[in-house]
Design a protein that fits this description.
Blueprint: E1 8-10, H1 17-25, E2 29-31, E3 60-65, E4 68-73, H2 78-81, E5 85-89, E6 100-109, E7 115-124, E8 126-136, E9 139-140, E10 155-157, E11 178-180, E12 194-206, E13 212-216, E14 220-221, E15 226-227, E16 230-233, E17 237-239, E18 253-260, E19 266-273, E20 278-281, E21 300-302, E22 304-309, E23 312-327, E24 333-341, E25 347-349, E26 359-367, E27 380-382, E28 389-395, E29 398-405, E30 410-412, E31 423-427
Parallel strand pairs: 11-19
Antiparallel strand pairs: 1-3, 2-7, 3-4, 5-6, 6-7, 8-9, 8-10, 8-12, 12-13, 12-16, 14-15, 17-18, 18-19, 20-22, 21-25, 22-23, 23-24, 23-26, 26-31, 27-30, 28-29
């Protein structure tokens, strides 16, 4: 009995056009199983900056088949027409920041219909984030002390060495957490732009014992035609944990947020929410502004007040919520709708009305609710029976019940008892 070896592998000794191109021009190509000849890998795929390999799609590729060779061609070639066909499956090509191997699979079909799948191996850099520096308005942060003083910048070193017993990607700087300071809007959100320095190794395959071999390398960034361990990312995904809450609390609370670099490494960083207690807030003027016959033509709200915060007088936002009644030109109330006004500015002009109509706003004020830079109210609480709000208005000649705040509705809060007094403003612009 004569055994004929027909094991398929890439022929790295062949000088046919496609074979030569694959082994000399494709970044990270490391051959196949059962390959004829050898390939020295001197380049690696960057998991943060890559394109799928430009493998041939015309002509043919020569494979070794035991002691013989076999040529498989692409659509339109004579080899394809003779039944020796090759197609590429890219679904197995998934470079990871942990490095190692990834694959593009060659699907070879013989005239008999027999199909053989041969993975083409590509080596990938292992790239662990070592240091991150946030970028804000073009300035790269460098001072870790600023993590804790409300500037909204962040700098940290990370664990990047395997075998230490500490998870790769954990911040080393627990003493310098990103710190949220109530009434300091710059501190409310982690930055999303960073300069990141990586610890990078090129994968060298397995040694005789089956252990992965790595070599320290400076990665290439093909899209920038540069080589560097440091790269600027204009956007990374930032996520707070599911148990994070915007609320006033008597003691500091530490959360752990994550920064995900593209679709690759996820970093874990400590976020400290500073304790904040309001002991009192300033009163605002609850008198009626304007009247039905003489509305204020340029009505605006004072959206900045003062409160005693952690024992110190401090400027804080004022948020208003309630309802608005719209009047026709003849002075008849024709409709109503709920409203809420919030900003980090010191005042806020009321919305422009259509056709110079008069609008009567009936509002509650919350002095000291937390508001972000976009004017979004961050601290809210469910309305209780005490803080719910129902009233009646004469709309189109009929008495209409208005449920401004139902029990369970979320309303702005400063952590104190809800102030149910109302402020009325007649406006026409």
């Amino acid at each position: 009995i004569t055994y004929v070896n027909r094991t398929i592998g890439f022929d790295a000794t062949s000088e046919v056009t496609n074979n030569y191109s694959i082994k000399t021009t494709l970044t990270g190509f490391a051959g196949t199983d059962n390959m004829k000849g050898t390939i020295t890998v001197n380049s690696w795929i960057n998991p943060y900056d890559y394109k799928t390999p430009a493998l041939p799609t015309e002509g043919f590729i020569r494979f070794s088949a035991g002691n013989a060779t076999a040529d498989f061609g692409f659509v339109g070639s004579s080899y394809w027409n003779d039944g020796y066909r090759i197609e590429w499956d890219y679904s197995t090509f998934n470079p990871s920041y942990t490095g190692g191997e990834t694959y593009v699979t060659a699907i070879l079909t013989a005239p008999s219909g027999l199909t053989y799948k041969l993975p083409f191996k590509f080596y990938v850099y292992r790239m662990y984030a070592k240091t991150i520096n946030s970028i804000k308005n073009g300035t790269i942060a460098t001072n870790k002390n600023n993590n804790i003083n409300g500037t909204g910048t962040y700098v940290s070193d990370f664990y990047d060495t395997e075998g230490t017993g500490i998870e790769i990607g954990m911040s080393k700087d627990t003493a310098y957490p990103f710190t949220i300071i109530p009434y300091t809007p710059n501190s409310y959100a982690l930055p999303t732009s960073y300069r990141i320095t990586f610890t990078t190794h090129g994968y060298k395959g397995l040694d005789a014992s089956g252990k992965a071999v790595w070599e320290s390398k400076i990665p290439t960034w093909p899209s920038q035609d540069t080589s560097s361990n440091t790269y600027n990312f204009s956007y990374v995904q930032v996520s707070m944990p599911a148990n994070f809450n915007w609320e006033f609390r008597a003691s500091d609370v530490t959360y752990y947020a994550s920064i995900k670099i593209q679709a690759q490494q996820r970093l874990t960083i400590p976020v400290l929410f500073k304790a904040t207690t309001l002991s009192s807030v300033n009163d605002i003027d609850y008198s009626t502004i304007g009247s039905s016959g003489s509305p204020s033509g340029s009505a605006s709200l004072t959206t900045n007040g003062t409160a005693t915060v952690n024992g110190t007088s401090k400027s804080v936002p004022v948020v208003y919520y309630g309802y608005a009644v719209v009047y026709s030109k003849s002075g008849t109330a024709i409709g109503w709708h709920k409203v809420q006004f919030s900003t980090t500015s010191s005042s806020m002009a009321l919305p422009t009305t259509i056709g110079n109509r008069t609008v009567r706003y009936v509002l509650r004020a919350v002095v000291g609710a937390m508001v972000d830079k976009n004017g979004t109210v961050l601290t809210t609480t469910p309305a209780t029976e005490t803080s719910s709000w129902e009233t009646t208005e004469n709309i189109n000649g009929n008495s209409v019940s208005i449920n401004v705040v139902a029990i369970g509705d979320m309303i702005p809060t400063n952590g104190l008892t809800v102030d149910t007094r109302t402020k009325t403003i007649w406006s026409s612009r």
